[in-house]
Every structure is written in structure tokens, then in C-alpha cells.
Batch of 4 targets.
Target 1
Amino acid sequence: MSGHSKWSTIKHKKGKADAKKGKVFTKLARYITVAVREGGADPEYNSNLKNAIEKAKAENMPNDNIERAIKKGSGELEGANFEEITYEGYGPSGVAVFVKCLTDNRNRTASDVRHAFDKFGGNLGATGCVSWMFDRKGLLIVDKDEQMDEDELMLQAIDAGAEDFSAEEEYFEITTAPDDFEAVKEALKNVGYSFSTAEITYLPQNETTLTEEKDIKNMVKLIDALEDSDDVQEVYHNWDMPEDLDI
């Protein structure tokens, strides 16, 4: 299996950036609430909820916050009615940007997203203008340690049904078809592996390089501005971001 995705490095950094901004608990609470409303409050029968709870615990979200979000989703507590909306557009020099939101105010979210694109050298596009450039995949990131055997992990991932495996400097990246994600995750978890990222996401088919300093700065600011919104759950893009760039 082969392939290198700097996107996973970007995602790895992005998660840390979210936590620094103090936004992650709000976003995860919405994710949990919507998962309950769409699939019920039992994580054993609701894979989206199970993933949301695991992600929340990985970010050290307090159990009380998780339980409150579940109760809001099940109707035991009053809460806003969130809906999922996606926006698509282009960043500086035509970088494809795909934004996934959960919002209780469509007009506010649209205004915030449009403002971010306009302010930092991009433009919001029509639905479908860039989503075709991304593939929906299961993504598992296993942080490296000295005891880990790369070949053994790769073979176990393949046997479990993974599509691709790559070794990066600090971690291993495993991708799956969306339908195989849970099976691969559980198989690896059952033999002792843990994940710093475990989710179904969107990977770019091709990447765009930015060479102008102004474009690089604006692209970083665009990502930051979008992620700073409580309504924005995920920002996907196909920028070939330098690995030593700290966002």
C-alpha cells in the first residue's frame, strides 16, 4: 500500500489549533446532539454518536458536557435545532475549500462564511463547485512509539479491510472506504492500537501549491477565520501546506 497525504498532517495540526481556540467543546457538543437526533442515544447502535463521543473524550471533554449534549439530542433538555449545511468555494490562487457546518441560524452562518472568503482573497462558489475534488474516506491516525512494528500494523490494517497505509514522520495514516471504517477501527483497537484521529472525512484528490507569501498568509487566515466560527465543524481544502508551517 502506498500514498502520502499531507492533508492528514494538516488535519492533525488543525485539531490542535481548534483546541487552543477553546472552540472544540462547543463544536463537539453540536456533533453529539445532531448524532443523537439522527440515530438515537445508544452509541452501540449509532456509529455517528459513538465516533462523536470517542472524539469528545480524546479532546478531554468533560463527561457532564457529553451527557448534556446527548440529553439535548434526545429531547430531555431543551436545545437548539441544528442543521447541517455545506459551503464550497476557492481560496487564494484557486485552492479548493469545502466547509461543513452545523447551525441553528442559516443566515448568520452564510454571512460569516462569505465574509471569511471575501476578506482573505477567496470567493464562495455554487454547491458542487469543489466537492467533486474530494473523496469521502475513513481516516485513522496512529501515533508512533518505539515499540510499534510498522509492517505488523500495515498487515493488520490490510487484513481488516483498509484501502491504504502510509508512514509519516510522527504517525501512521490508514484510510478506508466509509463502509469499512468501523470494522477496521474495531479490529485494530481489539489488538491494542489507539488513534489520535478516527473519523470519516474528505481527502483531496489533488493538491494545490501556493508560492506567493501573500497567498500563503491569506490562506492561513481564511482557515483560521472559518474555524473560529462555532457553526463551522470542519474545513477541508486541497492546499499542499508546508509541513513546517504552524497554523
Target 2
Amino acid sequence: MAKPSSRQELIDYCLRKLGAPVLEINVAQEQIEDLVDDAVQFFQERHFDGVIQTILKYEISQEDIDRARGRQSEGSYNEPGIAKTYSYKENSNYIEIPDHIIGINKIFKLFGGNSLGYGMFNFKYQLFLNDIYYWGSTDILTYFMTKRYLEDLDWILSPDTMVRFNKRESKLYVDIDWGTVSPGNILLIDCYRALDPTDSTKVWNDSFLKQYLTALIKRQWGQNLLKFRGVKLPGGVELNGREIYEDAQREIDMLMERMSSSYEEPLFDVVG
């Protein structure tokens, strides 16, 4: 099928691109399965179509609070060349994050010190109650500038929650005063979730993924044939494993360059 919609259809597509069933592709099924996993992982971590921005809702439990406020990991180390031992302690102020979350932007402020106020004391509520009871009483520019000024004050007085996250650890460290948190408080986490090809079947038909997996299988084919010299097919045709391997490696290098220039989100500028 020219438009694969499942894992096996993608494998069959790639093998046909390499010459099957006319040629025997000397790659074991187990090797192909590993290469599919590698290709999907690379697609999810690097391709902008491999993830989707979503909001993760998390309810804080008493266990989270006890862990963040109580338990500490301790350790020590000796600095080379200095006869001194340093000791340290690290709080366990983290919450568990599902494995399919590969990036986190921020946590929305839901509790604690919002200078704009809440409920009837909210500035927006009071402005609409007292000043914008009929159209034209306050021009939009004044309203916009006032709101922007108060938002700047709010950002200074109650800055965004600082978070630390590494996708290899699946732990989101939340640097807040856990003494102000109660069980049942909700965290809304702005994050990126890896697309699951089982649910989003169009992933299997992505043009980059098809080319990349084909090149990976081709390289594995050449690598397998490198173990043998002078492998001949019926009719005296000889397969050159090194040429297959090097040709596939060139294709992979081109795909890596295309990923960086066309499919990957650009890096933010770093100053300092």
C-alpha cells in the first residue's frame, strides 16, 4: 500500500522500496522492529509533526506534598586535588509525569499571590462593573494599557512558577512553597505530548518517516552483508555490502540535514 496506515504496512512499504520481493532483503524481522522503534522515537523527538501541544491536568495529593516537604536525598563528593569532602542535600519536590510527555513549557498560575486579585476583587471585574457599563465610556487603548501595566506588576510581584524537567527522568520539579499547597489543588501543565502512531495512524504515512526508515533498513542490510564477502545471488549477481552500507549512510546524512533545516523547530537565541 502506497499510503501505510499501520506499523506492518510501513515495514512492507520500506522493503518494497529496497527491492522486495524481487530481491531478498537480508535483515531479520527483529532488527526491523528495532529500527521502526528507533525511527519513531527520532520522529517524535525531532520532527515538529511528532508532538502536539496539550494541557496536562494534575491533582496534587498529600503524598506529593509530604515528599516535597520532607524527604531529601543526601550525598557527598571529593573534589580532585583538594583534601576536602563536600556534602549536599536535594529536595524531592517533583511530581510524576507520563512517559509520552517529552517537553514542558510552564505551569499556569492557579494559586498564590496574584496581584490582579480574584473574584469581585479582580481588576477586570471592577473595571467592567464601574467604568464600562455602557459602550464608549472607556476607550480600548486606555483599557489595554492599564491591563498591560497591571499584568507587568503581577509578573514582578508573583512571577511564573519555576519548573525543571528532563524527559529521561519523567519527573517535573516544581519550585514553589509547598507549605501553601493543599491536597486537591490542580496544576495545569503546558506541555508537548508525543503522538502515538497507534492512535494517530497518519504518522505511518509521514514522508520523512518513510524515507528515514527505508534508509535505516538499507544500512542494516549493508551492515549484515559486510560480514560476508562475495555474496552471490542466483545468476551470478554479487551483492556489495559495503556499497549498500555507504549509500544508505549518505542518505541518512542527507535526511539528518533536512531534519535540521526543514522539519525541526529552530533553536531559540541564547544571549550571554
Target 3
Amino acid sequence: MPTFKDHFSTLASAYASFRPDYPPALFDWLSGLCATHDLSWDCATGNGQAARHLAQHFKQVHATDASASQIDEAEGPVNVAFSVAPAEASGLSDHSVDLLVVAQAAHWFDLEAFYQEARRVLKPNGVIALITYAHHRVDAEIDVPSLHYYEDVIGDYWPPERKWVETGYRDLPFPFAEIAVPAFSLTASWTLPHFMGYQATWSATKRYIEATGHNPIPELEAAIAPLWGDPDSRRTITWPLSLRVGRV
């Protein structure tokens, strides 16, 4: 079994508090691709963001994460079963899954082993969906220091797998019968403290602090605060979503 690349266990509580949620329309569309709606697997569920949406469309949701800390923070409806398991060994029965979703995590996997597991658990004609998003947008002014932080301050501290995210998974191996995807965007309405908390959950921020002993978030906040105005006022943050969707 491949070694789990754990960038987020120590940030599990903050991850649950500050990560953005996905648009319901995305899961309406994904569930509409499925002939039956018995079971969905939310692989690398984190704190259960995608699982909560899937629960509205499927009788049962199997939500797994290799991080016990993330599962400890996860919450969902009664038809969501959370468990600790790696992406490559779900514990699910053969050909039992209607829809397999991986939200913002497939780039960390041993893809060959994961795809083997996906083929094992998906029903004939079952659907697999890999979801990702890269850098956010706020407005022309705030985006300047925010992008500088993302690319220049912590840019060297992103794990190498981040390259897949930056290309919207277009270059990620995907050995399935691909389905064309409509445009989806993720949006949030956040205060300045929430916006800062989100950027503090990034794996590159964590690695920067570990390497330098310096927390760069206060300096980022000092650069953005004059452009934001009242820190308790809400701004709309947008992330274009990228998906690879296919059938076995």
C-alpha cells in the first residue's frame, strides 16, 4: 500500500472551519448521470463537504479519508458513513458504487492503485468524478497581493503534485470513457478573517512555516486589509471548478 501523503491532518479543525463549500448544482448534475442511486463513495472526504451534498441524492454515502484527524472533524446526515481508509483500499464491495467522487484530493493519490480500486467498486457504467480548483479571485485590487502570496511568497513550498491542480487536471491520467462537463464555479461570501483563515489552511503555508519558523499570514493580511475595508464586511470569492468525469 502506498504511503499516505498527509498534508492536512494537523490542520483538520481549521480545514473544517475555513474551506469553501461546493455548489449544489454540481451534485445535481453528477447524480443525474447515474442510472441508480444506491451508493456513492466520497473518497478523501476531508471533513465531509462533498459527502453532505451526495447524501441528498443517494441512499447511502461511504465517506473515507486516510486522515483520522479529518474524519474526527467530519459531519454529515445519518445516511453518510465516515471511516478511515486510504483511497486505494476503500473496503467497499465489488461493483457496488454508483458514483465515486474525489474532491480536491486526487492529485495526492497513487493513481494506478486508486484507479484499480475504482474499477473494482464501481458498478458497470458507474461514474467517477475528480474535482479540483486552484487560485481564487476576489477583485482586481485584492487579487494582486493575494496572487503574490500564492505564487511568490509560498510558491516554492507547494508540493510537486500541485502541478495537476494548476492545469485543472487536464494532464492527469484518466483511463475512463470521458463525459463532457458544463461550467461550474465555487463561490463564497467571506469576511476578511475568514479569508485569511482559508489561506492559512493551504499545504504550502504549513510547509513555509515549518521550513522558516515564520508565519506569513499577518503580512498578507496587512497588505489586503486596506483594500478590503471593514474586516467584517463580506466579499464574494470565486474559484472556477475543473472536473474529469467518466464511466468505467
Target 4
Amino acid sequence: MLGDMSRIRDPRAAGLSALAGLMADETRAVCLLALLDGRAWTAGELARHAGVAASTLSEHLGKLVAGGLLAQERQGRHRYVRLADARVATLVEDLAAQVPEAVDRRPVRTLRESSARSAMARGRTCYDHLAGRLGIALTDALTSRGLLRQDTGFALTEAGLAWFDAAGIPLTGGGRRPLARACLDWTERRPHLAGVAGAALCRHVLEEGWCERIGSSRAVRVTPSGERELSVLLGVSVGAVG
């Protein structure tokens, strides 16, 4: 009987193997990480970013779209791709956080690479929420003020719900997405706030001009008005994330 049971294969095995194979190629991994900025990229932009020929990149994108990791649309002669949804972003970020620190901290070769890495570590978008030291600082501030609980998984408290409402940050449009979720930060190795609340907070600070994107990267920086507002609202010192 046990011998018969041992030959019964989990029906999810083939799908899991195929999914892992999609992400096992370095060029495809580069594309998935770039698309964590939450924006749509053209195939040409991704090809230049990955340092491969357009024809090569097109083959990789085709596999990612067919595998359900990317969504695509065409506008004129341009082909745009983005991560399929927040679920894919969570998967990519969680896997990136598992990369051994020795690999993640490999020596930088140029001043430009060093500056880019430092900017990403200070603050960045993780699909649609904030990450890096800025994301951790905001998460810690919400927690220390009793607005967010981390002891039994991430959850907004009643005071937290009232705080978002008073700050004019609507927590809507989440569907089946959790209100608050922990996302393991791949540079800080600690969880930051994701979910509907994390996305709403990120959208608010960008729309209000409290943070701004640095060029076309995922990195963000706090503006002078953001320094004042975040200090008033949450007691966050920008110097602590610099």
C-alpha cells in the first residue's frame, strides 16, 4: 500500500517546476526585478536594461507572458509589459530576499553602480509600496505608535485605521488583497508594510510630493516637504534613512 502511495505524484509538482524554470534564467530574472517598479516597460527598454539583443529579449518575454508572470499590451508599434499582478510582485520580492547576503553584497565596480545601490537601499518602491530603509522606518513608526501590529502577523489596529482616515489616505480598491501584509525587505532583511495599506501610503507620499522617483529607477528620495510631513505625522527622521 505504501509503495502504491509513493508513486502518487502531487499534481502541483509539474506547475511548480515550470514556474521555477521561468525564473531560473538570469535575463528573465533581471526583467522581473526591473518591473518591480510597478510600471510598464517597452520591450526595447528592457532589452537595453538587460544588455541583450531585442530578439533575444522578445523570446524571454514570450515565455514570461505565457507563464502568467507578465501581462502585455500593444500601443502602436510598441509592446509594453508589466508584472501580471501584486501576487507576482510578492513572489519575486520574497525570492530576492532569500538570496544569500554574500551574493547580494558583491563588490561594486563603478561609482555609478555604487550610487545606484546606495539609493536603492535608502528608499525604493517594491511594486506599489515602499521598501529599503525608508520603508522600514515608516513600518517601525506605525508599529511603535500602535497603528500597526506585527506580533501575530501584520494587521492595522483600530487606531491605525483611524490614522489613515485622518491623514486622508483611503484604504480602498484592494479586492481580495490583504489590508496589511509583511513583505521581507531584501536589503534590510526585515519586513516592511505591503498590502492595501502599504500601497495606499506609497501612492499618497508620491502624489503629495513627499517622495520623488530618482530617474527611471525604483529608487525614491524624500523631498524637503516630505521631511516635514513625515516628521509631523509619524515622527520619522529622514536622517535615519540617509
